[in-house]
């Protein structure tokens, strides 16, 4: 009888046990899934960023510092190269260049050319006005020398590297004028860009600073042009160097001379070529020599500080005639 009762209850008990097991398993899976979902969802609260690794931050800072130092060293290397190019050993007091020597010993030219190309414009932006002027005047004169070296016109055996153009017969065979587009078509790589000599002269110097003294500092590789200085221009005594350039040039036969018997003043063509630079300078506001044409008035005001009182009295003569000296286009080469 007992056995029969157990047999009768066995099947319902098994069914109930199986049901309990299934419910328990489902609950476990559900709990796990909910927990995983919570873990995978982003926290809606703003999470504070992790503090950067101090060592990594220092390394990054050091790398940036190294990059800046490297770029600054480029500027330093350029100036050091200029210091070895613009020297009495390679340039005479008269501004004549020993091109043949410089062509043989051109490591400094190669260095300056390479570093000018790499120079970061941000370096120049942080320089003073005087430092920028000195840099661009030195760079202009360097690029002129480099252009001559790359197109060295007269070889020791008398052969031309560049045959003279038939329409250039009015210029000497060894003149920079024999190089087609010397100022407008020959490109120089500076600040990761390409510039012509004309662009350097006008955009970075004359139009920007409107200082006529610069016209007597920028060499055009010619005997008649501005005398090339045998030292680089430097910010700490730039004014003295520019004044000295003008004074020396005006005291030469190619710069200025009197014909007092004919009551004539002969001036270099530099005054005529750069007439606009003179007219746009502060000299235009000086109210002296007002009976003269505008350009002559400005020229006379420019000349006055560099001449004697006797010369100034001659300038004040209303009958004084202005004439221009024939420009000497021979290469400024030391023989």
Verbal overview:
The protein is mostly helical and 335 residues long. It has a domain at 63-208. Helices cover 50% and strands 5% of the residues. It is built from twelve helices and five strands. The strands form two sheets. Strands 3-4-5 form a three-stranded mixed β-sheet. A two-stranded antiparallel sheet has the order 1-2. A hairpin with a 2-residue loop joins β1 and β2 (193-195). It is globular. The model is unreliable at 1-7, 25-52, 54-70 and 154-159 (pLDDT under 50).
Helix content: 40-55%
Total beta-strand segments: 5
The average pLDDT score comes to 83
Distance between the termini: 142 Å
Structural class: mainly alpha
| Rg calculated over all Cα atoms | 39 Å
Question: What fraction of the residues are assigned to beta strands by DSSP?
Answer: 5-15%
Short précis:
The chain is built from 12 helices and 5 strands.
Question: What labels would you give this structure?
Answer:
single chain, 335 residues, mainly alpha, 3-stranded mixed sheet, two-stranded antiparallel sheet, 5 strands, 5% strand
């Amino acid at each position: 009888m007992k056995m029969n009762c157990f047999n009768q209850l066995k099947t319902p008990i098994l069914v109930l046990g199986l049901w309990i097991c299934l419910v328990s398993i489902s609950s476990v899976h559900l709990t796990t899934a909910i927990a995983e979902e919570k873990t995978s969802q982003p926290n809606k609260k703003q999470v504070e960023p992790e503090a950067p690794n101090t060592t990594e931050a220092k390394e990054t800072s050091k790398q940036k510092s190294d990059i800046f130092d490297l770029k600054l060293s480029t500027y330093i290397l350029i100036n050091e190269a200029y210091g070895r190019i613009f020297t009495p050993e390679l340039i005479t007091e008269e501004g004549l260049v020993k091109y043949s020597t410089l062509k043989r010993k051109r490591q400094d030219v190669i260095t300056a050319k390479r570093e000018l190309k790499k120079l970061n414009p941000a370096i120049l932006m942080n320089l003073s006005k005087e430092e920028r002027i000195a840099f661009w005047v030195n760079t202009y004169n360097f690029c002129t020398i480099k252009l001559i070296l790359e197109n060295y016109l007269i070889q020791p055996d008398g052969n031309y590297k560049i045959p003279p153009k038939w329409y250039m017969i009015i210029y000497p065979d060894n003149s920079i004028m024999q190089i087609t587009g010397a100022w407008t078509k020959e490109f120089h790589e500076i600040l990761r860009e390409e510039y012509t000599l004309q662009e350097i002269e006008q955009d970075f110097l004359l139009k920007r600073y409107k200082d006529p003294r610069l016209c007597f500092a920028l060499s055009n590789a010619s005997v008649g042009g501005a005398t090339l200085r045998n030292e680089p221009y430097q910010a700490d005594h730039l004014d003295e160097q520019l004044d000295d350039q003008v004074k020396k040039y005006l005291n030469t036969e190619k710069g200025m001379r009197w014909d007092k018997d004919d009551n004539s003043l002969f001036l270099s063509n530099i005054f005529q070529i750069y007439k606009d630079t003179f007219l746009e300078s502060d000299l235009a506001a000086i109210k002296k020599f007002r009976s003269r044409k505008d350009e002559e008035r400005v020229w006379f005001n420019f000349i006055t500080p560099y001449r004697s009182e006797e010369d100034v009295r001659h300038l004040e003569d209303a009958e004084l005639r202005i004439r221009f000296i024939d420009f000497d286009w021979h290469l400024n080469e030391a023989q």
